[in-house]
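The material for today's practical consists of a large collection of protein records. An example says more than a description, so a record of this kind follows:
***
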Amino acid sequence: QLQLVESGGGAVQPGGSLRLSCAASGFTLNYYAVGWFRQAPGKAREGVSCISSSDNSTYYTDSVKGRFTISRDNAKNTVYLQMNSLKPEDTAVYYCAAETSLLFRECALTRTYNYWGQGTQVTVSS
């Protein structure tokens, strides 16, 4: 059974940091492109960052560039999202998703992915 499990969410003050983890079971994650998405209350789910399976190319949405970093640890079958300089507008449920074959230019689109985790809450507030 293919499963993705996110962890690492929590409540932090503005300017703080969190590292989200997306751990895979039942499949080898390094053969999959992985995307991080977030969904705030009343808003559509949006693509935040993604990493390719072929050469670990990365993508970041403009609002997180320079603050977030996506990375892989193949030995742990896990993808991470390091989030620094967090802002209140980063508050959302964060999801990871995986797919074997995709056009990397579409890696931030929800319709690209078949495998999703359950989400982890990130709250940035003073």
